[in-house]
Specification:
By secondary structure, the protein is mainly beta. The protein is 9% helix and 37% strand. A six-stranded antiparallel sheet has the order 3-2-1-4-5-6, with helices on one face.
Length: 158
């Protein structure tokens, strides 16, 4: 949901100048999309059956959907040992880490960074949602892997 549309409407509003009849959700077809990190927020995941409570990064990504325009998508990164691979994949995807290097969580450098994500879909409670399935290595990241074998695919799956 875009922040400019996230404003309460009073019960006695006389008229709404620009009605948002379709909402601002755009169902993206699966594929690779360029994105830019437009917002970073610190949060907390309260835990569940598959993962304990931990800090959580809530990222707003502006996804370039070509003729559909720019789509805002919230992506969460969990700071849990179970999710180290996902954190590494994201930081490689935005160019803040090279394969084989230690992961440095450079949160203050994220806003404005760009990359390519693989978008898919997931269904929950009968509704379909856009879902990031992985991040594509930038061209220079694969050149950094001289000592490691080439990956079978460009996308790091979640």
């Amino acid at each position: 949901m875009s922040t400019e549309n996230n404003v309460a409407i009073g019960w006695d509003e006389e008229r709404i100048e620009q009605p948002n009849e379709g909402g601002d959700f755009i169902d993206l077809p699966p594929g690779n999309y360029r994105f830019t990190v437009s917002k970073f927020e610190r949060g907390r995941y309260e835990g569940g059956t598959k993962m304990c409570a931990c800090p959580m990064a809530k990222l707003t990504l502006d996804i370039d959907a070509a003729e559909l325009g720019t789509v805002k998508h919230v992506h969460k990164l969990y700071l849990n040992k179970k999710c180290e691979g996902l954190l590494c994949a994201f930081f490689v995807g935005v160019g803040l880490r090279k394969h084989g290097d230690p992961l440095v969580l450079a949160w203050n450098q994220l806003v404005g960074r760009s990359g390519v994500c693989t978008m898919g879909q997931r269904t929950h409670d009968g509704k379909t949602y856009n879902d990031i399935k992985g991040f594509v290595d930038p061209p220079d990241a694969s050149q950094q892997q001289a000592a490691q074998p080439e990956p079978e695919q460009d996308v790091i799956p979640f």
